[in-house]
Amino acid sequence: MIEAMTGRRLFFTSAALAVIAFAANANPVMEKSQPGNKGMSTEKGMPEAAARTSESRELSPAEQQRANGDVFDNRDRLAAPTKLSGAGKSADKSLRGGGDIREALRTKSVTPDGTVHTETVSPELEKSILEGIRRLERDKAEKGSRAAGGDRDSLRDPHLKNVIGADERVQVNATGNYPYRAIGSIAIGCTGTLIGPHHVLTAGHCVYNVDNDKWYKRIDFSPGHNGSQFPFGTVGWKKALTVAGWTDHHDERFDYALIILDRDIGSETGWFGFAYEEPMRPYLININGYPSDKPEGTMWHAECQIDEVRAEKVYYPCDTFGGMSGSSIYVYDKGKDSRTVYGIHAYGANDRNSGTRIDQAKYEVILNWKNKN
């Protein structure tokens, strides 16, 4: 197999319907595991917290007119983001106050007709997030470790292709079997993972181009895609969501998104759970995606040990390539036969690659999106 696992103090969400029945079909060459501990979630039957309400506002007529007229980037393939702020001038500014939280975590969404919507962070959600950040800072201060935030990566280069040394990726052939059928290609040239019946987790730069501040329109999802084979077809989308930290501030710490599909394909494929953990261990992780240096539309697996965990990012030496952006960074618990997503692969570097870590704030936002859509 090609997977890895681990566990500690976890906060989790739901997972796949009928996954346990499907799991026996997984390609035995495509997963690996390591011993897990108490608290590891599974993909099936996990209870979810109630959706949190939030205030929202529609765009003004002028804003809506601009959005409808020029909201989409209609290119066929993804453009690597270059106008980023998170690794440079804004990386030393951690989210502390309510104003920062409200600004960076505002939901920005688009529908296929070009309607753009902004939704503010509810007081309840903001309170929960701030409490988690303060608790984390207290824990870190007691242990003398790095304070929350401050994620500076001087080695990051969005143009690097991210194969480190010998290429150790392995092709996944049984893409019609679980868990691989819960992963799929996104038409623009990215990878996504189902975390619900019609919910695809991916990178923010797979739905929104920060270089021209437009949304990508070609974000249909093909689960289990394998070359010329589309075992579950291609599923259209009805909404894409990310946060203002990405769309407005171009901050790579907020490079995550959720695509809402127009039908419940996850009822056929199953889906993964997702979680945050404090402190997060240096797990053996799995990354499956659609690299552009391999035959078109083929899925490839990478695995490695996490090199470093920071407040909002995670670093690892797993081999990746363009097209694997948006792949889930997940852990496989063989004992529980569970898969839990802890991050989203996003960037390459000189000697290691990195992804957006699911911390408490991101967990709460993603869960809220899922519950409301």
Cα shape: globular
Structural class: alpha+beta
> What Rg is obtained from the alpha carbons, in whole angstroms?
19 Å
The main sheet comes to: 9 strands, antiparallel
Listing every helix as H and every strand as E from the N terminus to the C terminus, the arrangement reads: EHEHEHEEHEEEEEEEEHEHEEEEEEEEH
Q: How many helix segments?
A: 7
Beta percentage is: 25-35%
Let me know the number of strands: 22
Percent helix, as a range, is: 10-25%
Q: Note poorly predicted spans.
A: 7-42, 44-55, 86-97, 143-161
Give the CA-CA distance, first to last residue.
33 Å
Largest sheet, spatial ordering of strands: 2-5-4-13-14-9-8-7-12
Mean pLDDT: 78
Furnish the topology, listing elements before pairings:
Blueprint: E1 10-12, H1 19-23, E2 56-58, H2 61-70, E3 72-73, H3 98-104, E4 107-110, E5 116-119, H4 123-143, E6 170-172, E7 183-186, E8 190-196, E9 199-202, E10 208-209, E11 214-216, E12 221-223, E13 237-243, H5 244-247, E14 257-261, H6 266-269, E15 273-277, E16 284-289, E17 299-305, E18 308-309, E19 313-316, E20 328-333, E21 338-347, E22 353-357, H7 360-372
